[in-house]
Each structure stands twice: as C-alpha cells, then as structure tokens.
Design brief:
alpha/beta, elongated, 3 helices, Rossmann fold, nine-stranded mixed sheet
C-alpha cells in the first residue's frame, strides 16, 4: 500500500476541502464589551439660603424604567431598551440624587426620615428619549405635612437629544429632573426650618 502523500490528486482534493477552515480557530477571539454606562448629571447653579426642610422619600419609577438599559420610545406603545447604553446606578437613585441637589440649590434642604418636616413623595412616570429626538419626562409629586397637602404633575418641555448619542439623553434627563426640582420649589409653600 502506498502512503497518502504519493497520491497527488487526493492531496490536492484534501487541501481544497480544508480551505474554508483555514481562517477558523477553535477558540473565538475576545471582543471588547461595547456597553457604556451613564449617570444623570446634577449641574446646579448658585444656591439660595435654606427656606424649607423636608424629608424626601425614595423616588419611585414606573416598572419598565427599573431596568438598567436606557429607554427610547418608538411610538405610543413601543419602547426600545438600548442594551449597550446602561445606567451606572439604578435610575431611581440617580433621580433622587439629582432632585436632592436641585432642591438644595433652590433653598430646600433634606432632613432624615422621622424629623418634623413635610414629606415629599415623587413618582416618575416617564424618563426616556423619543426616536424623534424629543425628551419625555413626567412625574407626579406630593408634599404632605401636618394637615396640609400639596400635589403637582410635571412634564418637561422643550428638551431635545441627539438620537445617536445616549450621553446627550442622560444630560437632558438630568436637566428634566432639575426642572422638576424647580417646579416643586416654586409650588410648595416654603417655610423656614426650625
């Protein structure tokens, strides 16, 4: 019996058959993770003297916002989760952080729960970008203290984001949260803390 290498035609056929596998490896190359993480910025201007103290309850967000991916609305009932653009902290924590900073800049200081101060509850109903470049941010809030109760419904307006840049969406949603702080501070009856 002749060795395999003595059959040039068989050797050529085997070489041609192996060509599709020439660039393959048994171990795929590791690819860099394209995921980017964002936080809501809290760019506040000059602060005003403290005129009110309140207790800020944990911010509530709609259930679909509790996921880490950023949300882009494509229609009345269609949303897209941007899997490679994620929040670097739970969205409700980021909103509470920005809201606290915004209120503090407007003369409203936060005190620990249980203190004799009005209680602010905030529920964020929408916090996303739209596919057309608009920003959708809606929140309902309630300030209770003693026998008084003040409520508000807030919708951000006039904010736009670059639909190719999730960083611009994070910036605009941070601006919307600061505008919510403005709305609360302007509507709530301000009383100096004791």
């Amino acid at each position: 019996m002749k060795p395999f290498c003595r059959y040039p035609l068989a050797r050529a056929a085997l070489t041609v058959a192996m060509l599709p596998f020439a660039g393959c490896t048994l171990f795929p190359e590791a690819r860099p993770d394209p995921t980017r993480f964002f936080i809501l910025p809290a760019e506040v201007g000059a602060t005003t003297p403290v005129a009110m103290a309140l207790t800020l309850r944990p911010v509530e967000v709609a259930a679909y916002l509790r996921n880490r991916p950023m949300v882009v609305r494509r229609g009345a009932s269609e949303i897209e989760f941007r899997e490679h653009a994620r929040w670097g902290e739970p969205l409700e924590h980021g909103l509470a952080r920005v809201l606290s900073a915004g209120l503090r800049a407007r003369g409203v200081s936060a005190v620990p729960a249980g203190a004799a101060a009005p209680v602010l509850a905030v529920r964020v109903l929408a916090c996303e970008g739209a596919a057309d470049g608009s920003v959708i941010f809606r929140a309902a809030w309630e300030l209770t203290g003693g026998a008084s109760r003040v409520t508000g419904d807030f919708s951000a307006s006039g904010l736009r984001w670059d639909v190719k840049s999730e960083a611009s969406l994070a910036i605009q949603l941070g601006a919307a949260a600061l505008a919510l702080a403005d709305d609360i501070a302007a509507t709530a009856p301000l009383k100096a803390p004791r």
